[in-house]
Amino acid sequence: MHDVAAEEQGPSGPLSGEQRPSGPLSGEQRPSGEARPSGGSRGEARPVSEHELGWAIEAEAAGEATPAQYAMLEAHRVEWRTGLARLLRETEANLVKVRALAGPERDQVVADFERERSLLASALGRLNGVKPEVVDDRTLDGPGEVRLQASWSDGRVVMWAAGPGTEPASDEELGHRLAQVDAPGGGWWPHDPVALPAGPSQSRERASARAIGMPQALGWLVTVGAKDRPEGVGASVVWLGRVAVWAVDFVARGAIIPTLQSTGSSFAVQWAPALIDRAKLDALSRAMPGPVAALDRADARTLTIDVLGATVDAIVRDAAGRLELPAPPPVVRTPADVAEAVVTSLDGSPFDAPARLATPLVERLERWAEAVRGPVDARLVVQLDPPDKGGAWFLSVLGPGQDGRLVPLEVALVDGRSKRHLADETVRLERLLPVLNRPGGQRRGEVVLSQDEAFELMGITGPALAAAGFDIRVPSLSRRKPRPALRLTAEPVDASVVGAHQLADVRWSAVFDDVELTADDIRRLAAEARPLIHSRGRWVEIDRVDLTEAAAALAERANRTRLTGAEVLRHAVGLESSPLSGGTSVGGTGWAADLLARTSTVSKEAVAEPEGFAGTLRSYQAEALAWLGFLDSAGLGGCLALDMGLGKTPTVLAHLARASKGSGPTLVIAPPAVVGNWSAEAARFAPGLRVVIHHGASRATAAELRTKAEAADLMITTYGTAVRDIDAISGFEWARVVLDEAQAIKNPSSDVAQELRRIQARSRLALTGTPVENGLGDLWAILDFTNPGLLGARSAFVSQLSAQSKDGRPSGEHALRALNGVLVFRRTKSEPEVAAELPDKIDELDHCTMTPEQVGLYQAVIDRLVLANADERRQGDILAAITALKQICNHPSAYQDDGQSLVGRSGKLARLEEIVDSVFAAGEKVLVFTHFAEWGKKLADHLTARTGIPAGCYHGGLSRGVRDKMIADFQARKGPAALVLSLKAGGTGLNLTAASHVVLYDRWWNPAVEDQARDRAWRIGQERTVVSHRLVCPGTVDERVEDVVNGKRHIADLVLPRSSSLADLDPDQLRVALGLRPDMVLTAEAEETATSSGDREEAA
Amino acid sequence: MSPDGPRRNHNTNKPQPRRNSQPRPPAEPTPAEFWRIAPKAAVPARITPAADPTALVRSLGRPPLEHTGADRYLAGVAQRAAGLATALAVAADILATTDDD
Description:
The complex is a heterodimer of chains A (about 1100) and B (about 100). With about 1100 residues, chain A is of the alpha/beta class. Chain A has a 7-stranded parallel beta sheet. In chain A, strand 33, helix 38 and strand 34 form a beta-alpha-beta unit. The longest helix of chain A has 23 residues. Chain A is elongated. Chain B is about 35% helix and about 0% strand. Chain B is flat, with a radius of gyration of 24 Å. The N terminus of chain B is likely disordered. At the A-B interface, helix 2, helix 4, helix 5, strand 1 and helix 7 of A face helix 1, helix 2, strand 1, helix 3 and helix 4 of B. Strand 1 of chain A pairs antiparallel with strand 1 of chain B, so a sheet runs across the interface.
């Protein structure tokens, strides 16, 4: 907005001698200093006469001032500015008068005054240090380049194409160029060629032209004008576009007025812009390129106003045409008929009316809108001061005084410049703000508002006043409803006590945004008509219901003045009830407050390549690593809840690699299937760690355990072994204990959970991708293991977090979000920033255990094969034995259908169950591939019975229709699902992108077959990362197939190191090729393989 | 003080420019003037539609039209026109985004 007060007052700041101009003012030399005499105070300047100063002002504006005149002006900058502004106003007033003149000299006189006005306006701009509203690029259309140009002619846009020093484009090329810049496709009509100026010895060029009306060109011009550097159009087109955008701005603000124009006996409503910003008008006029005026030689300012008016008129007419206006009177005979004709023709439709009736209305409309017609000279300022201590809001209206400075309205009306205009503006203002007329004010334009009235002004009336052209200076008001929260400020009673037991004195308050309110504050606010607070630089209204609830919450807690650190922490993470929607925040000092303060900075400590770690962590892993460090330093345990496939194991290994040295051994307790993974990944990512596996018959005895553990950095064991050896394991303190797949302890009363609680560790960590499998009780069980007693009772934990989840989000996810970053570190694959870092597919190798039943059967098959008479043994027998061994690795029942329950008899099946549980808990789908179709059917039945979710088995024995339906059902089903497929029937051609997990239950010799299977899910249309699990029993034929698949050996080498026939192998060779390797086989007790099954049944 | 002194010299009923020595502007520009290097119009600021586009018309008081619904129709046009202008601003991607939270 144009600030007249600023124009006349100028910016403040010293003017140095170097800045003082010594000749005609240029852009580089323009003064930008303060309106003070350069010699010091005004009193020190040499007295000058008004005549002297007046001449100097004019001479400087014309660039003709002498050094002495400059010196004089510099010494009287306030008077210089005031005089210049007054000259400008007078020149503009004169310009209006001379435009109304007739006669042969009219054009010359108008041109002279326009030049005068331009010089004065430029001088005033320089003096004020106002940068003209132009950008640095002063080049219009480059020489020799033909561009689209636009001229303004009689209310139409005339397009042609030419450039300096070039031949203009033909009509055909013009049409081509118009199409290239997306100009309107229709609405054009031919126009006479545009004559381009020629030099003295040149012939005039004529450019082919086409014309279009502003209504038709409007949308395109606005689009061109809105762009920074539109391509393919000349500066004249851009300029017209800029004016069109300005017109849109006028109409969008409602700064429009109707006028009545006559053309003979016909009249029409024409809409004009109101309150035109003088500085902007001048800037646009100065920037008008020559081609715009190729057909209309009017001065730039007149043309600018003309284009602006035509564009405003086009927009408003179009809009009015969409209104249902009443029908016009058939004949206009009376003044009332004229008025009715005007109202019914607001869309600009012409109507006939006798001039004697219509002309008076033309004048009355002009007078009615006179206050807002044309460039704005002085604006009223409506200023609302913040409330005083008594809550009174002082409203004052200011106007420009004699010297341009803002003065109270009453003074401006008597002593200011443009008194009549100010009086008109005051009337306008009082219409919109009638409170100004309230009796009792000391002066006109000053009134004290109530809080209610102030709120109304800030929120509703103020914007309307601004739209009406007044300068509104009111405190900012936010429409956002502030969220109430409780704040607990703690001060430790005894700082020497650290940890969850530390006692602290606490003070309660309510917080609305960033404003803290005591009970007294709330009582005072509640007594006000509109409870307003000043928050983040804005005034905000508090909801009365929230205020009442906050008062009640504080009253309820008035006597709770001392809490333990654990209690404070529970309040902070939302484990204690809060009646306010924003929960409870914690401030002050002490263990809990300090700990919470640290959580906000933990992510800044993320390191992607920590010391001792041979790899690079993804961003979320690096953050998790920083969080693990935070837990260590805070003496807290926690739950690392990264989704399956997001790399929990490497993250923990990075933590151990960095933190383990000298801190004592870490005990990792994991399902048997992932013990091998831990060992392999430790060797890969943390080669500096000394790793011991405590599992199997050859594990350390109770007496040896401590020595073995203390000689290592990391000891890995299984849940079953840990429970079995719990006396030895809990006989000394570990640096850390880590539970992998920690959902194994989700039942806190189970033996596993109870026994593992006996382990002494300085830090306890739980790893799981599904911390809330069956409900919030699972999460409590895990967190109560990691931080015994900290969370309080299970029932309170569950009910509190369930109650908070009234926003529709599943309570589990809500709880994880509440605890995230403190006791839980949760990331899921569905988070965009996590997904962005993930590869398209993740392959995981799961080492599965063998139950004693599997080991026995496996050995029996080998024995039969070896003991058979070598002469009778055929190659087919060996291949059959290999098949049998693979079936045994899958499950005893896959080898011999004994009709017994499948539960607890196979390590692979136990691992599959764990995977399926995790996948289902995340609401996702899984494909399970096996190359034994019969076993696949059993698997599907087993999963269906176990999970309650129907799992089909896709195999070659099904009809085409059944198979198609099975696929369609799987793809369409909402929520978790599993589908078992035979590798042969389902490995190719299917599209199963609904699944994001693939389990390769058994291995096939050819890796390409497995890739094809995995690619059922990982293919076009898949938007998530696909996690592929390969299940392998180490030390068996399964692993030898794995070696083949990995290219580590050939099939022939597997069975026939040097021989040419399978049948040629001697018994020892057969045992080496196919037999069990006791040192590698992972054996599990039946209870280990049944763990997850048992839990499931228990939960059910 | 007043800088009116110099102007009083030619203070007649018919306004006169102060410097008669100014050259008459050429009737037709030369090619150099026509294609002159001029400041480029600034990129426009984003457009913020008024919450109440009828405010300005209302501030002028009752329109001088002997018609009972005149002010209502004028307000209706202002509102509809502001809506159309907003649509144009959206289409040109120049509508301001509100910063109120």
